[in-house]
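We modelled the chain as a single entity of 165 amino acids. Its sequence is:
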Amino acid sequence: TPEQAARMKKLQEQEKRQKVEFRKRMEQEVSQFIQATGEPRRRFQPMNKIERSILHDVAEVAGLTSFSFGDDEDSRYVMVFKKEFAPSDEELEAYRRGEEWDPARAEERRRLRELAAQQEEAELECGPAPPGPPNDYKDKYRHLIGSDAAKAAARTMEANKAYGC
């Protein structure tokens, strides 16, 4: 019916106006962020998919780096970074896990990884590991066979004379 079509057109125009207004608001916020000297990154409130895509576009036009974080649709948010403070892979991983980025903790993790790599390198320099299995199968089955079951069986074993030599 013509009434439904008119109502639909009115809703679409209203939606378009809201998107334009949202884009203007995001452009103002991004502009303020760029001018804020002591702010390397800014986290925006959770928003829906369309709003996030508009914000990503505004950030890209402004020459900024932006990422979305959060698991479900209701809690996904956008973080915008200035190019000179682009996040490292470790920083991005922390945000993806829902953690706050802590450079001191990241440095500690990096040092621990370096130390583990050095230890591994030192072990490799000592030469290859002796051949053979890494553990003794008897240890694995000790609860079934006991510790001296095999020795007792060997002591009581007698040669089968039926086979003869």
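As a brief sanity check on the tokenised model: The radius of gyration is 33 Å. The first strand starts at residue 41 and ends at 43.
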